[in-house]
Amino acid sequence: MQSPCVARCGLNDDDYCMGCFRHIDEIVTWSQATDAQKQQIWQRLAQRKQQFAGEQNSQGLSRDKWLETEARLKQCD
Question: Across residues 5-18, what is the average pLDDT?
Fold first, then answer.
């Protein structure tokens, strides 16, 4: 299943990307997610797009942020 990424990464204060509207956790785990999980994420994006209308990116999605999130999620497994 295709990723919703639109190559406009930038996180708001709650760690949602203002490009694709996924949470950082969803972005980091996308490649390991099942098709059913990916479909659930896709279904939430339209609502999030409306919810975050007008918000600006507060920070980029840095490699450090990615690695921090990846480590946190691995601890939860």
Answer: 86
